[in-house]
């Protein structure tokens, strides 16, 4: 339950201080010579914050992007829209996760060759030795399973505070062919990351990966972020469109849900509003069905 706000947030106007009632105001005499500090005193000047600069990509990330980026952009004819919505500093991209084989992530990284995207993978990936080691070496971070474990010291929050660009897939699992038009419910982690780091969230729509890297059928158990396909996916040379929407802060997303309850539910309400924004971007290109089911917890065979 939300706590009662103090009087300073009640909306009442602050009262003006009482007047001096005609009494003269005392003024300090002006000094003829300025006062200089003693010679043994250390004077510390307040530092000026430098302008935000985009850091160059890490070594392995830059090598992979340099080697595969042009091929990915050519093979999938990657088209990018809405780059003007991306700030130079900290930001969190929230994208749908339509394709398998990380093809949507590859296309997203190839769309911005001059800037590194630090992807947020699942904690399950971190526990897999080879996958976890590879993702860490490319600058990836990992989402904790429990929302209550996310705090100001979380690596994802720390990376945002370092003015980095991060990308998360709040659906937490990619789709099969049957659910290719479904946008599953977003995890509240993405909203809590943005709230703690005071970072804007950029809704992002990836269109075409559901056909270019489709998982036709396969088994998935609850808690696992991927399917075991009966047949390996094939990367088809189909066009990929990536569109970024206007940024939104955590507070702005909450304003769209005025009847939300307090506590951790606020993060889920903000994530639900973010899901609607991503669905609106997808709807400009193809039909999109909004689901209130967490796909990570689902069990399916195809």
From TrEMBL:
Q: Which InterPro entries match?
A: Plipid/glycerol_acylTrfase
Q: Which domain of life is it from?
A: Bacteria
- A molecular function (GO) term: 1-acylglycerol-3-phosphate O-acyltransferase activity
**Gene Ontology annotations of biological process type:** phosphatidic acid biosynthetic process
Pfam families the UniProt entry points to: Acyltransferase
Q: Is the keyword Transmembrane assigned to this protein?
A: no
Name the UniProt key words of this record, in alphabetical order: Acyltransferase, Transferase
Pathway given in the UniProt record: Lipid metabolism
Instruction: State which residue ranges cross the membrane.
Output: none
In this chain the Phospholipid/glycerol acyltransferase domain maps to 91-209
Annotated stretches, region: Disordered: 1-26
Q: Can you say what this protein is called?
A: Acyltransferase
The organism encoding this protein is Lignipirellula cremea
């Amino acid at each position: 339950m939300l706590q009662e706000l103090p009087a300073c947030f009640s909306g009442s106007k602050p009262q003006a201080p009482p007047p001096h009632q005609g009494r003269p105001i005392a003024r300090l005499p002006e000094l003829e010579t300025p006062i200089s500090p003693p010679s043994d005193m250390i004077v510390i000047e307040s530092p000026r914050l430098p302008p935000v600069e985009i850091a160059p990509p890490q070594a392995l990330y830059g090598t992979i992007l340099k080697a595969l980026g042009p091929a990915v952009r050519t093979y999938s004819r990657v088209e990018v829209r809405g780059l003007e919505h991306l700030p130079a500093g900290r930001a969190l991209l929230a994208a749908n996760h339509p394709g398998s084989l990380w093809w949507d992530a590859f296309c997203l990284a190839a769309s911005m060759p001059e800037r590194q995207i630090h992807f947020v993978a699942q904690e399950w990936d971190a526990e897999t030795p080879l996958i976890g080691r590879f993702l860490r070496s490319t600058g990836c971070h990992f989402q904790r399973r429990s929302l209550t474990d996310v705090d100001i010291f979380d690596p994802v929050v720390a990376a945002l505070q370092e003015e980095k660009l991060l990308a998360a897939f709040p659906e937490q699992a990619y789709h099969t062919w049957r659910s290719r038009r479904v946008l599953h419910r977003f995890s509240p982690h993405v909203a809590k990351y943005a709230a703690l780091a005071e970072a804007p969230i950029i809704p992002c729509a990836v269109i075409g990966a559901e056909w270019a890297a489709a998982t036709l059928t396969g088994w998935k158990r609850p808690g696992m972020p991927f399917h075991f396909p009966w047949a390996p996916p094939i990367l088809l040379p189909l066009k990929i469109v990536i569109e970024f929407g206007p940024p939104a802060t955590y507070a702005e997303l909450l304003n769209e849900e005025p009847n939300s309850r307090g506590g951790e539910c606020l993060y889920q309400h903000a994530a639900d509003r973010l899901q609607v924004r991503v669905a609106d971007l997808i709807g400009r290109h193809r039909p999109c069905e909004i689901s209130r089911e967490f796909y990570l917890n689902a069990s399916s065979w195809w």
